[in-house]
Structure formats: structure tokens, C-alpha cells
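Entry type: protein chain
Record version: 2
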Amino acid sequence: MVVSVERADRIAVVTVDNPPVNATSHAVRVGLMDAARQLTPDSGVDAVALLCAGRTFIAGADITEFGGKRLEPWLGTVIDAIADAPVPWVAVIHGTALGGGLEVALGCHWRLAEPSARVGLPEVNLGIIPGAGGTQRLPRLTDPDTAIEIITGGKPIGAERALAAGIIDRLITGDRRAEGIAFARGLVGQPPRRIDPAPARDPGIDWQALRARIAARARGQESPLHALSALREAYRLPLPEGLRREREIILPLFDSPQA
């Protein structure tokens, strides 16, 4: 199984094992959706630790599915189910959490990471934008400069910087599984810590000037500007509407010449 569930008393340990990079294949999406729906207090679970086997956390989409029929559940739907889960989910990150991997972690209620881990949203380098909540959840967790850099620039950042920016909650140096279980156990009895659905706080961003700077840097690449358009909605719209707008922006990009 590419997604397995074990129990440590009333803590569920969900492990993604889809080598080589634990990509969000259809089987992984189905497994995570089932876990989000089934791991509830009524099933004997008070909290969930999400880990990945092998050398990395979820490091993006399954490129073997590109160009084919997009099978449900979509990743954004899976992440929404995790975010809305009745018990806290803790993402335990090692290696890289890139693209959909970081978006899965953002859907979790807490995020732990090894000091050597790196996180990012590189979709603009593929001619598209983050399309599973990244442009909406990240700005609600971190400062505008960091959100703009990660979403429109496509370069990952290290765990220590992510911690300082509020993207990661704690760095861990011990056994990942043990650390994840211990942290999850400390959340028992607490409600999930959900991202505030209100629009992110805009400290007075000059969007026109910012767009001009990004356009100059992009040198004809359109995806950074589409990413900026989606990101701006995080400062204008409540989360559910922002997520819908993100999807409206990304869908045509899959068939664009630059994708």
C-alpha cells in the first residue's frame, strides 16, 4: 500500500510510501482521502502524524500522470479534507516538501521538520501555479515578502528560515516517527488549529509596482504573473473563495504553450 495507517494508542501514524519521491499519485490521493475521512474520534483516533518513507517527504506531483485524464480525488479536495478533519494532523517533514507536498503540509494543522529539510512551491518553473491551496494558505501563515518570493519565484527555502517565517512550527532532530507521535500526543484534547479563513492582512502592498518587477524578472514567462494574480486573491477573498479562484486560474494553464 502506498498509504498505510498504524496506531500508537489513540494516535494514528499515516505513512506515504511511493518511491522514489512520494509523489501525489492517484493512489496516494485516494489513501490520504480515506485517512482524512476515517480517522476520527469515533474510530479511536485523537490525532494524526503524517510521515513519508524513504529519503523525502512528498516532493510534488506524479509526472507520469501529466497529460492524461485527471482522476479524482483532486489533490486540492484531499487537502481540504485534511484541513477539515475533526482531529489534529501533524506533518513531519524530511528531505523536501515541494509543490503538492508543501500544500499537503499546509493543509495539516501543525508542521514539524528536520533542520536539513527544504520547502517550496516550484510550479511556476513548470509554466503553471500552485493549484492545491498553496497560493491561499501560505499567505495566511507567513509575511507577504516570503509568500511572494516562494509562490512567484519558485525556489525552495530551508527549514530554519521556514520556521522563522511561521511556515514550520518546530524543528526536530530525533527519530521522525517518535517525534511525530509525541507531538501529536501533546495535542490530544485540543481542536485542530485551522488556518484563519479571513483574507490575509495586506500591509499596503503596491501590487502594480510588484507586478512590474515580477514581469521584468520573468522575461516572458507568464506563470509568475498568474501566480501573483492568485496570491493577490488571498488578501482580498475569504479562503473558500480564494481556493475556487486559484483553481480557475490554474486550469487553463495546463494546456498553455509554456506548461
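Comment: The chain has one domain: 3-185.
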